[in-house]
Amino acid sequence: MSENRQRPQLSRRALLTTGSLLAGAALVGLERPTRANAWPAGWPPDASDYAAVDRVAPPGFVQPFTAPIPRISSPYRSYRTCQCSNPHVGTDYNYDGIRGREFYSIGPGRVVAKGDASAMGYYIGIDHGDGVFSRYLHMDVPSALNIGDSVAAGTLIGYVGSRGAGAAHLHLEVCVNNGTQYQSPEVWLSNSPAVGEPAPTPVAERSFSINTAGTLEGKESALAPVVPLRENIAAVSADGLTVAAVDIWGGAWVLRGGFDTGWVGLASNAQDVAVDGDRFVVLHKDGNVMAKDGLFSSTWVPQIGGVSQIDAANGRIGVVAGGLLKVKEGTLFAEWTNQYGGVTDFALHGNRIGVVSGGAAYVKEGNLFDGWVPMAGAQRIELTSDRVGLLNGSSLDIKAGNLFEGWENVAPSASDFALSGNRIAVRSGGSVVVKTGALNAGWNGYFANSVKIALN
Ligand SMILES: [Zn+2]
């Protein structure tokens, strides 16, 4: 049941080998998928495709089981004790007695692969369209489905078995971007219901506050209740369905999925954390920055030392070291570029970088080497893809649209603020209010006794 009782399963390289097995003897007596109609080209992806992919399934996808969903015994990208250099490219569902349980297609589509292979057992691959594929391993008997069959979300694929594995479990893989990138199945299905259950309300617009007692509180929407999430918290960062928090002892923690999901330990001796999709950047108390791609990856990549401030967004990481803003984009091993000196605050969003230096704000848009556009006086800056927010004294001014639009005063007495999409959160004293939509929309009360705020 635990992964280390299984035979070494599929490393990326082993999957590639399996791919060639597919064209050979392993499919005796089975429909043999050909390269043309079976796997999408490039699936399994190669090593370079391990970039942060953290998408969530559109409405219409479901869990591979009816309720209750079996526990996840080995999450995506967890490391196997037996093959510790190889990430786990799928999600394993397992409990004592799971053998023979029905499992189902996670979405509508067409069967594009069916076979049997040494480390996979009987398996099925489904093309869901839009470049999304799923694959189901370890059946003891072949699925009744055949290549070319259409399936709906919730169509029976087969029964959980142990063929090609040490213990009975379902190994589910999800690939996106036309099958060129693995993606966490847990994240993909994090907002999808069990087969036969109604779809939950989408989790989209989360707001967070740390209160004066150190409690991290979250709120899913304007109408949702305030939910206490964790005690003794000093810093918070949120992106999509992921929230990361640093406690007063330096422990960094991650909660992914619903607010009732368990926290996962990320790092110790931390003073700040930034989340960008499946990427985690930690500023340690000694000023060193470490980053990793994948919550369960054990590969921390040292970034840089002497750092006082971090941010991460849309594949970029920014740090302030000795007052100098440095930004890299792409892999964790990319080169740093020097951006601006004397920086006291900065923000990253999409292809925008904003800095505050010498009491004034500047923003650049485009590649890392584009020019800076002067904004106005400020002490704090926040960005979205089409808004720039500046806090100057207690006055919050926002410009919407391009970098040359005019400013609108949105709040006259703000002590801090946050921007995300078309949302604006303002802390005024200890009260946090949020507006959604136009700059002149009305405010909704969100949190009390707040000392820090964040939006996902
Ligand atoms: Zn597995």
TrEMBL record:
Name of the protein in question: M23 family metallopeptidase
Pfam hit, one: Peptidase_M23
Native organism: Microbacterium jejuense
Annotated ranges, domain M23ase beta-sheet core: 87-178
InterPro entries in the cross-refs: Cell_wall_metabolism_enzyme, Dup_hybrid_motif, M23ase_b-sheet_dom, TAT_signal
